Amino acid sequence: MSRIPRIVILGAGYGGIVTALRLQKQLNYNEADVTLVNKHDYHYITTHLHMPAAGTDKPDNARVSITKLIDEFKIDFVKSTAVQIRTQDQKIVLEEGTLSYDYLVIGLGGEPETFGIPGLKEHALNIRSINSVRYIREHIEYQFAKFKREPSRTELLTFIVGGAGFTGIEFVGELADRMPELCKEFDVDPALVKIYNIEAAPTALPGFDPELVEYAMNVLRNKGVTFKIATAIKECTPDGVTLATGEEIKSATVIWTGGVRGNHMLEEAGFETMRGRIKVEDDLRAPGHDNIYVLGDCSIVMSPEGRPYPPTAQISMQQAEVCGHNLISQIRGADLKKFEYKPKGTVASLGRGEAIGIVGSRKIKGGVASAMKKIIDLRYLYIIGGIPLVLKKGRF
Amino acid sequence: MSRIPRIVILGAGYGGIVTALRLQKQLNYNEADVTLVNKHDYHYITTHLHMPAAGTDKPDNARVSITKLIDEFKIDFVKSTAVQIRTQDQKIVLEEGTLSYDYLVIGLGGEPETFGIPGLKEHALNIRSINSVRYIREHIEYQFAKFKREPSRTELLTFIVGGAGFTGIEFVGELADRMPELCKEFDVDPALVKIYNIEAAPTALPGFDPELVEYAMNVLRNKGVTFKIATAIKECTPDGVTLATGEEIKSATVIWTGGVRGNHMLEEAGFETMRGRIKVEDDLRAPGHDNIYVLGDCSIVMSPEGRPYPPTAQISMQQAEVCGHNLISQIRGADLKKFEYKPKGTVASLGRGEAIGIVGSRKIKGGVASAMKKIIDLRYLYIIGGIPLVLKKGRF
């Protein structure tokens, strides 16, 4: 009797969870053993994290218990942190124990990329997990409480968001919405609060339609956000940031959203990486490893124009569909599919009731875009958890 | 035409606000100008502050806008901080400006008394105002958020309350109730949380019936509180406390409730003080000053046995009634009343649904005492703001 192949999925982010669901649905009985490994016993919806980070939504609304998503009769779930990938003997070293695999899916997500800017790693906060966003929320509230004890320290009410990409823009929108609430709660004059969004690139939301970017910036400016575009952060200290222009901005809160790289384990495992990411083959496998698939922030997929697609939830989920298909094909000895990204549009929220986006070739903004954003969010909940999850976690 | 006498009331705590209300009710038109001076534009209910400090109630439930309590046609309200009392020329120096008085009521409240214990002033938090309790609440939540980033630092989950008097005991009761909620919110194992209540005196709640004290300590022990009674704190550092026994307890949160002294301005103004308080005459006036009344935490009233009564909301309010009466009598040239404290009973809450108390000569505990506590609280709201305030701020 031949042994049942063992599939290990590292990470229950978009890529990992959708791959698991796909395998759960399509694998036949005893066709493969599937084990999903994740640091937490919940999956979190990364694209929602900017809300609990600002405190405009509960952290619980951005996460789902993994055992509510997968069928534990079909898929094993191990709550543990992977610390090493050993391709030479096909093992994953966990914080507690070791797992063997025949097929591996790497969906470990990303890590903040600070581009070597001094102090960012030590002093800036990152929007990257439920724990980190709870921390950011508490940190922000704490600054208001501190300010009431030391009312001369107005830098406690200055908030700096580094990076005006997708996450940065969505976060400043929520942050600006949250400020009036916090000012009311702590009896603080709203005029004292300052929010800066600083971006080194020549534009906010690089790659987005310029007309929509202009619209977004105006919406956010009206909410009190000050932009510093085409302005690099030279250094981050416990007291704020110094810009390339020499300007110093004092602040007790710097949130860095300016870059993402792949998980550090990939490089350590001997894969060839660019910014910690593996440039995958057409079928999503790591070059030279015909049993290892790489998804999401750990992977690089090139566009037909030869540029890497930005890592998004959307591309991860599409990768997961193909990854699930290819794993099953491989086990069954069938042909593998090529992955082709089909962009379905992008919507960036700008806080309450406001958003911008491209759907198909159509530009949308304002209430329409905001409604579309909600639909996209609900669709994702539906994909991973069906109607019950939509009803439980959906924001209508 | 003789000038209308000017009465200035410093502080809108229990003593100040009740005096103001009494004057407002009983002074005739043009009999006196009354000005109430307070740092904030709200009165706060000090005996409730342990709840918002622990996060079991909203800070707003412990405060009332001053202009909702007083009639601004009859009493002037000045929102400012008094910085100096000048008895020689009958003036109060405010942060902005100066006020003249013919009669002065000092109800400025107390300040933490740290008995010279090194580090307490710098590193311990105090339950003493809306701002301070919002800070404590945020500080506690922040420790949970921090712990999730640095799970080896269990001292972040250790909370030390110095002093097992009234405030200390009521606060640990709320704190213990709050912990399960915070553990749930931050995914923290409740077994990691530690609450210490440390008291130098030979018993908790000194002066209270020993049977009730025993009951209270058992209730709180069952909620997870560890007592260290007859144990002095020798030093407080940013890392915790060292006890007189040599034991060190690591903690990022020390809340000091162990003592209260009078406002520092009294000593600076040349009054004879004991721990910052003025031992008042029978008619509540400061010795040698027939136009200055002193109330609450700024005053010392001796019991018939020659011991100072502990400063409480109850005694302050009774003082305020007599102070109001005596001010009017003095203006009208009538005789002044002697103040005699009539203890009506005391109830200490122990968190949700639990309390102990003495009402008349009767000991009460458990649900009965807890209900009595609520009645006392509602009665106070009724005294200062009538039925509308009871309905708005009452906890039923």
Automatic annotation (TrEMBL), chains A, B:
Gene Ontology BP annotations: aerobic electron transport chain
Domain FAD/NAD(P)-binding residues, every copy: 6-320
Cofactor(s) this protein requires: FAD
Domain of life: Bacteria
InterPro entries: FAD/NAD-binding_dom (IPR023753), NADH-Q_oxidoreductase (IPR051169)
Pfam families xref list: Pyr_redox_2
Keywords in alphabetical order: FAD, Flavoprotein, Oxidoreductase
Signal peptide: none
EC number, UniProt record: 1.6.99.-
Enzyme class of the recorded protein, top EC level: oxidoreductase
Molecular function GO labels: NAD(P)H dehydrogenase (quinone) activity
Family according to the record: Belongs to the NADH dehydrogenase family.
Protein name, per record: NADH dehydrogenase-like protein
Annotated organism of origin: Paenibacillus solanacearum
